[in-house]
Amino acid sequence: MYIGFAGLGRMGVPMAARLIGAGHTVIAYDVYLTGTAALPAALQAGNTRVASSPAQLAATDISISMLPNAAITESVLFGPNGILTAAGPGHVHVVMGTVGPAAVRDFAQRAAQSKIVVADAPVSGSVSLAQTGELTAMVGADPDLFQRLQPLLATMSHKQFHVGPPGAGSAAKLAVNSVLAALNQGIAEAIVMAQAGGVAPGDLYQVLDSSAVSAPYVDYKRQNFLDPDGTAVAFALSLLRKDVALGLELAGQYDLDLPQAQTVGRVLDRAVDAGLGDHDMAAVLKLVRGDSSTAGRLRRQP
């Protein structure tokens, strides 16, 4: 199958690589991609072609976007050289970036005018899970389309959940990341609290990982919390802040009072203001400790 893929960031590269590894031909587009020689190493050995504009992705069977926000996704879909301006009736586009349910519903309604279908399938998991295909996909689509998309999504994810119509995938992802943000904040505060009482962070982490609060996230973020200088960024703090803000926006539309999300959102705002936005989300520990002035020492993703 020929698949268009827009967005070759930290998550997009390993996801596209898995599509290639499954025997698909990927037509790749990224604003920074100037030719085949500029492809990330993970994509150079397989069936990858480089598109000079998003419109060239419209010639594929299905196109995918893995982009950081709604504005960029809208540009790639509906801009002067956008995918959906060149796609014919029946083309399917899957929004896999976290852009918010309102944006996905808007994209789907606008695309439907040209008989083009938009679904969303944001994923939960880190870069390492993207590399091994162990992500979790939350899919917003009609049931028949979900059945069609599931085998393709299974090449990039371990589990695929149909959660409702277009936009529902984004709503589920925002709910998941609200819990993730709270857990991330909780680990940071627990480390600081225990350390104040004479417990070394590494010793506390062993307890956390064997206690009632143990979760996959606790385990795979161990190094980000305990050795930030020697551990690459898995998920940027600024992106978590964006997702929490989208969740609060959704809550506001329905007059929901979500004190946990509101509190964590304020902390993430402060962390970004302190210069930690490009660092891993575990860098909230710097803020909680009160040493965010040394944020520049944290290792950034190359």
TrEMBL record:
Q: Which PANTHER family match?
A: CYTOKINE-LIKE NUCLEAR FACTOR N-PAC, OXIDOREDUCTASE GLYR1-RELATED
Domain (3-hydroxyisobutyrate dehydrogenase-like NAD-binding) spans 167-287
- Would you identify the family this protein belongs to, as annotated? Belongs to the HIBADH-related family.
- Keyword NAD in the entry? The reply is yes
Keyword annotations: NAD, Oxidoreductase
List, from the UniProt record, the residues annotated as the active site of this protein.
173
Stated name of the protein: 3-hydroxyisobutyrate dehydrogenase
- The chain positions of domain 6-phosphogluconate dehydrogenase NADP-binding read 3-164
Q: Which domain of life is it from?
A: Bacteria
Q: Which SUPFAM superfamilies match?
A: 6-phosphogluconate dehydrogenase C-terminal domain-like, NAD(P)-binding Rossmann-fold domains
User: Pfam families of this UniProt entry?
Assistant: NAD_binding_11, NAD_binding_2
**InterPro entries (alphabetical):** 6-PGluconate_DH-like_C_sf, 6PGD_dom2, 6PGDH_NADP-bd, HIBADH-like_NADP-bd, HIBADH-related, HIBADH-related_NP60_sf, NAD(P)-bd_dom_sf
- One GO MF term attached to the UniProt entry: NADP binding
